[in-house]
Amino acid sequence: MVKAVRIEQTGGPEVLDLIEVELDAPGPGMVQVRNKAIGLNYIDTYHRSGLYPLPLPTGIGLEAAGEVIAVGEGADLNVGDRVAYCTAGFGAYSECINLPAARLVRVADGIDLETAAAVLLKGATVEYLLQRTYPLASGQTCVFHAAAGGVGLLFGQWASALGATVIGTVSTEAKAELARAHGYDHVINYSHENVAERVREITGGLGVPVVYDGVGKDTFETSLDCLSMRGLMVSFGNASGSPEPLDLQVLANKGSLFITRPTLMTYTASTEELRQSAADVFERVLDGRLAVNIQQRYALADVAQAHRDLESRKTTGSSLLIP
Q1: Which residue numbers delimit the Enoyl reductase (ER) domain (predicted)?
Q2: Closest Cα partner for 169 from 217, 221, 223, 133?
Q3: What pLDDT was estimated at residue 112?
């Protein structure tokens, strides 16, 4: 028997139940992983609340790092391998789990498992946003909302290392200081500044060619107003809820804008894409271009409080559940 978090119905953090479950031996192509650290991500709250529906009852959580303790026939991993995952299915909030080996990545030597669990999903998200959704180049300027969050802090470092000018938005001065320390050239406190107006000031009235928006409803219109003509809005999350339906004529009126709604799952659909993305992330952690900021650790039994803190914007950087 192992301890795992399950939900029988969608709702608030109170629906998260830590129970004991029976875990079978891994089948063909599968491995069993003992989780050492579990990544807490905002998408987990979407699954819990029902914003992104899952068949119920279900496990929850996408990201963790640990050690392979059993191997099924045909799996390309070995007992003792240090591995991490973020697109292998649901149920990471657990002590142990069976997973398809093809959706796991080996953790690079020199990276501890807590760091791996804190960086893989967020880092792979930054990788596809910066390198493949809109390949950001030196000399370009971009906007990223929620700059002091786990994805935001990694984004600022990566984009800055590319030579881009990075504008971030935050809600407090403490978060602004954190963002500046992680690569942001300009930080706008939306609690008392007009974001679109400040972006226009910074860019000499032109706007930016790309906005990366993981917040959703609260920032959607602002993001469009920050863009230059033929600019691209990358809407990759809904932390504040889903935006209202969009009249496509708005994109024409604001300058022939583009919009995309990418997901990590589609950008790591193949084993090769997943492992290359992870390798790019781990390479930057090892050479110091990405510093992983673990600010909160919770016992697995305290998962409900972890979700409350995440949704109330009390957290900064990355958060972990420790089984």
Answers
A1: 11-321
A2: 223
A3: 97
